[in-house]
Write a structure and sequence with these properties.
By secondary structure, the chain is of the alpha/beta class. It contains 10 helices and 16 strands. The protein has a 5-stranded mixed sheet with strand order 1-5-2-8-9. A 5-stranded mixed sheet has the order 14-13-12-15-16, with helices on one face.
């Protein structure tokens, strides 16, 4: 009979009242002796830790409300299972397979698993239909039009799960998953968050809401929002050092790990070399990168224009990606001499055409 390490996370009365939740986990033999952590996914803090013994471990504890926990095995290189927890949750987690299988006798985790299975099924059907249409020679626009109903049916799986679980943590958990895709304005997200209990518990939802708010503030026609970072030599640098100074400024958001960025940067360099002067310049804004990787990439790619390196841990007031709601990179925007944002999302051959037209 195998031994299970039991970690009690709360004080139990002498007369042995039942624990509020239990998470029983099994793992592959390779993880025996490794450390496992129980982490509050929302707050990010580690609640407890122990070692795996005989391919298993158990977490037990009290919970005052509802929460989302990550069970993390061998933190550096291991595996993570996300478990939805409420009072009396008795979850069984099989981490010997990837992705981990989680069940809890019809509880929130089973409901989430059912949603995931439905999404997988509908997603496969949609993918097969799109592939068939592509093979028939349909254009991307035609494929989008033909598959619109199937796409909405797929999205409805998420929407229905949110609606059916507004009063528990599952609804907020799924909302957190799809907020970026489903809601395009801060007002829309505010509306659904006001109807879904526990949505305020997810810090990432708050970040998305803030990004949407600033995304509206930094659309074409609005003034730029300033932020700070560091130049290539480590000196403090701000966007306002370059923008609003009487020149058109092309701002390129990029990162060293971004393949599409590296493909587009030579075109940005060409535009800079051809047009930089009294009326035009280029600024690179490096986001989501490590400082040494950023510096190495600048020299490797031969980027001749000024750079602003924005560290990953920047505060919100200097978080360039957040302030400009940059979801994907490369992302290029053009700012007028007076600091008014003219256009965002410029790519490829458009770059030179637009600059040449402005400076003509």
């Amino acid at each position: 009979m195998r031994t299970i390490i039991t970690l009690i996370l709360s004080v139990v009365a002498v007369f042995a009242t039942a624990q509020e939740y239990t998470i029983s986990c099994s793992v592959a033999p390779d993880y025996n002796g490794k450390t496992v952590y129980l982490v509050n996914k929302n707050a990010g803090d580690t609640i407890a830790s122990c070692q795996v013994e005989n391919n298993a471990f158990v977490f037990k504890g009290d919970i005052c409300c509802q929460a989302v926990f990550d069970v993390v095995v061998n933190r550096a290189k291991g595996q993570v299972a996300t478990v939805l927890v409420e009072k009396n949750t008795n979850a069984v987690v099989d981490m010997s397979v990837r992705p981990a299988k989680i069940s809890d006798n019809g509880g929130l985790n089973d409901k989430f698993a059912a949603m995931t299975a439905q999404v997988k099924e509908r997603g496969a059907e949609l993918g097969n239909l799109a592939k068939k249409l592509h093979e028939e020679g349909k254009s991307e626009e035609e494929i989008l039009e033909i598959t619109a109903a199937e796409t909405e049916a797929l999205y409805d799986v998420y929407r229905n799960t949110i609606n059916d679980n507004r009063d528990n943590i599952l609804g907020a958990f799924v909302l957190n998953m799809v907020a970026r895709q489903f809601y395009t304005s801060a007002a829309e997200l505010d509306d659904i968050m006001s109807k879904v209990k526990f949505s305020g518990e997810f810090r990432s939802l708050g970040k998305i809401r803030t990004a949407l708010y600033y995304g509206e503030k930094t659309r074409g026609g609005n003034k730029f929002i300033d932020f700070g970072g560091f130049a290539l030599d480590g000196a403090a640098s701000r966007l306002s050092d370059y923008v609003g100074k009487g020149k058109y400024v092309l701002v390129d958001f990029w990162a060293s790990w971004c393949g599409p960025c590296k493909k587009e940067i030579p075109m940005v360099i060409d535009v800079y070399n051809k047009y930089a002067g009294d009326k035009f310049t280029v600024i690179g804004v490096n986001i989501g990168d490590k400082e040494d990787s950023f510096k190495a990439a600048v020299f490797e790619l031969g980027m001749p224009y000024p750079q602003i390196f924005v560290p990953r841990n920047s505060k919100d007031e200097d978080n360039a990606a957040l302030l400009y709601n940059v979801e994907t990179i490369p992302h290029i925007m053009l700012i007028a001499p007076d600091g008014t944002i003219l256009e965002r999302g410029i790519h490829g051959a458009e770059l030179e055409e637009k600059i040449a037209k402005l400076l003509k």
